[in-house]
Amino acid sequence: MSPIIDIDHLSKRYDSGTFALKDVSLQMQEGEILALLGPNGAGKTTLISIICGLVTPTEGTVRVGGHDIRTDWRAARKLIGLVPQEITLEPFEKVIDCVRFTRGLYGEAPDDAYIEKLLRSLALWEKRDARTRELSGGMKRRVLIAKALSHRPKVLFLDEPTAGVDVALRREMWEVVRELRAEGVTIILTTHYLEEAEDMADRIGVINRGQLLLVQPKAELMGEFGKKRLMIDLYEPLANLPPELAERGLTLSADGRQLGYDYDTRAERTGIARLLGDLTAHGIAVRDVATKQSSLEDIFMSLVAEPKKETA
Ligand SMILES: Nc1ncnc2c1ncn2[C@@H]1O[C@H](COP(=O)(O)OP(=O)(O)OP(=O)(O)O)[C@@H](O)[C@H]1O
After folding, report:
1. Is 16 in the pocket of ligand 1 (CB under 6 A)?
2. The CATH number of the domain where 123 resides is what?
3. What are the tens digits of pLDDT across the range 77-100?
4. Degrees to nearest 5, angle at CA 57 with 103 and 17
5. What is the side-by-side strand order in the sheet with 251-252?
6. Rounded to an integer, what is the distance from CA 307 to the centroid of its chain?
7. Measured between alpha carbons, how far is 146 from 120 in angstroms, rounded to an integer?
8. Residue 78, domain member (yes or no)
9. Are residue 232 and residue 127 in the same domain, yes or no?
10. pTM of the prediction?
């Protein structure tokens, strides 16, 4: 199947000299959700803006649904909906009017039945005659989504859709995104909430300093970088860790009540059985053991960690 989004060797150097994107290539299939993660200034918004035709690339090409975004921009843009990071709404306009108006901007004929379905699915139908300034922040975000979907795009960009949205509303928005995916809409979302990416994305892309460091299926990424931490609670606090145990990679908590051991889940031998045997041999009684899987947050931090500066 040909990809719905095909990004080929894309680079962007702003006039200021900033290299916001460096040789980014990425393909997406229809109905996929990609979460794009990266620290502030990594290049996420620049990438989205190029695909949406708001920023011109310095090098490379982008095709959406097979249409080149520069030479065939009208056809490409019809396939795209963008929910911007900042809330940009006309304060005195009614909800339904601003969604209808956006549809008109794409040259689509009025379709009130579709607009009603859209507003209902975003729980905005009751508010259709409210002026946008009367809405809560979460509702305003949903109006932005309704506007972005008003012309039935096949690809939706959500640039930090849940920034500043409370937990309950955030989960509600995730539900909306899942429903869209079920309808076959392809979604790229940028987020600083790793929980959001972990929960929703099929694939995760990590971008840092303009470079796409990796794009991988979420499960694969979590497995590949997957480390586990074994936590061992002790009956009696230990004053010091015997040197032989420290050499094996065990660490002792400051209060002396817990031992920690990091291991690779993919390793043939994790060393846990031998470790527990060694504890018994040293007369250390174990009260409880628990393990913790490294989270996407740990993985992300290890990928974008700044290299330590050399000190003379
Ligand atoms: N219009 C512009 N002119 C010059 N430099 C820009 C412009 N827009 C962005 N940049 C620079 O390009 C780099 C990437 O910015 P971008 O907004 O794409 O990052 P981001 O990953 O979306 O960040 P954030 O998470 O903070 O939204 C930054 O160094 C930024 O300062």
Report:
1. yes
2. 3.40.50.300
3. 999 999 988 888 889 999 999 999
4. 125
5. 251-252, 258-264, 227-234, 286-293
6. 23
7. 10
8. yes
9. no
10. 0.78
Ligand 1 contact via 42 beta carbon (within 6 Å): yes
171 and 236 housed in the same domain: no
| 149 and 61 in a common domain | yes
Residue 147 lies in a domain: yes
> Do 191 and 239 have their domain in common?
no
**ipTM, 2 decimals?**
0.95
| Cβ of residue 191 lying under 6 Å from some atom of ligand 1 | no
pLDDT band at 228 (very low <50, low <70, confident <90, very high): confident
pLDDT in tens, 232-276: 999 999 999 999 899 888 999 999 999 999 887 767 777 888 888
**Is there a single domain that holds both residue 130 and residue 210?**
yes
Residue 231 and residue 219 in one domain: no
Whole-angstrom Cα distance, residue 140 to residue 88? 9
Residue pair 300/206 in contact (Cβ under 8 Å)? The answer is yes
Residue with tokens 């803006």: 49
Asked if residue 74 and residue 214 are part of one domain, the reply reads yes
Distance 104 CA to ligand 1 centre (A): 30
- Answer with the one of 223, 253, 274 that is the final residue of a domain: 223
The answer to whether residues 234 and 211 belong to one domain is no
Where do we find the tokens 């509303």?
169
Could you tell me which of 1, 20, 4, 32 has the C-alpha nearest to residue 188? 32
Give the Å distance between the CA of 17 and the centre of ligand 1.
Answer: 12
Nearest-10 crossing angle of helices 137-149, 167-182? 10
Q: Give the residue numbers spanning the domain of 164.
A: 5-223
Cα 53 to ligand 1 centre (Å):
16
Gyration radius from the chain CA atoms: 25
